[in-house]
Design a protein that fits this description.
mainly alpha, two-stranded antiparallel ribbon, 14 helices
């Protein structure tokens, strides 16, 4: 039985998940994992089913609400929405004005998260190493793709929501990565900042559909092949780290969004900066890594 303080912490964890999912390179699933709520989140979502509507009439709202752990979902989802809505403008500002420092922070955060995922694999045999390698290769290839689509129609955003949310609940795969590849990232950041409800609800509709279907598959996969699954997820994280390497160079303009935002093809570069600038970015990375370690320690203590 959770106390009021526990529910407050759950709301905060949801807030952190929502904030993380806005930033390319960070997965809300990673935050859920290192804060100790991943198993409950996945099993709760996977347990939702169509027969809930029938049970409402036969058993009543209270019984159904408790049976499907809906208080947990409602509080966590509220935190995620708050994280999205309240930090979209701030992160948009940071991405435009302090991109290197922001990527430095999340580079440290994601890098420190890799061993936390890897320790979930109990036996690192040959099959697990192969699974890790395949996960690494897949994530490396996916995050090397340029944005592919240049539209912001409601149907397209619905599909983006379904695909991106599947990535968001995976530790190591950022839904923002997928949205960048699909060409919907800037569109949705702007929509959140300006409260474009048509675009927001189109995306949320797809996300709601996608998360229920994908979570059932993932929950079953973890229960039957846990070591292999987490070995693949570890590879995902390692392969995706390059996306948030702090220093990048714009190679060419790919296209311009309707709001004037330019989508660039970029590549990672070795920094040619002053010692002071280098230390600032390294410091941001240390803070990100420290944030993960504190969350992990708190989760263990709980």
């Amino acid at each position: 039985m959770r106390s009021l303080r526990d529910w407050g912490m759950l709301l905060t964890k949801g807030f952190a998940m929502g904030a993380a999912d806005i930033v390319p390179g960070v997965s809300g699933g990673t935050i859920a994992f290192i804060t100790g709520i991943y198993d409950e989140l996945l099993s709760t979502i996977a347990g939702l089913r169509l027969q809930m509507a029938r049970e409402l009439f036969s058993d009543g709202l209270r019984a159904v609400w408790d049976r499907y752990n809906l208080t947990f979902l409602a509080v966590l989802a509220s935190g995620v929405v708050l994280g999205f809505a309240s930090l979209a403008g701030i992160l948009e500002f940071l991405l435009h004005n302090y991109p290197v420092e922001l990527r430095g922070f999340f580079f440290g955060l994601v890098t420190a998260s890799v061993p936390l995922i890897a320790r979930s694999v109990k036996n690192w045999g040959v099959s697990r190493i192969i699974a890790l390698t395949l996960g690494f290769a897949f994530a490396f290839a996916i995050t090397s793709l340029p944005p592919l689509v240049q539209t912001a129609s409601p149907l397209f955003l619905f599909l983006c929501g379904a695909i991106a949310i599947s990535a968001m609940i995976l530790p190591g795969i950022s839904g923002s990565f997928i949205m960048i590849i699909l060409g919907a990232y800037t569109t949705m950041i702007t929509a959140l900042h300006s409260w474009d409800l048509i675009k927001i609800f189109s995306f949320m509709g797809g996300a709601g559909s996608g998360i229920i279907l994908f979570s059932k598959f993932l929950n079953k996969l973890i229960k039957t092949h846990k070591d292999l699954t987490f070995a693949v997820l570890t590879g995902f994280m390692l392969g995706a780290v390059k996306m948030i390497w702090p220093w990048k160079e714009n190679l060419k303009e790919l296209f311009k969004h309707s709001d004037g935002e330019i989508e660039w093809l970029t590549r990672n570069i070795i920094p040619q900066v002053s010692t002071e600038e280098l230390l600032i970015v390294i410091g941001c990375g240390v803070v990100g890594a420290g944030f993960v370690l504190v969350l992990d320690r708190f989760s263990k203590n709980k």
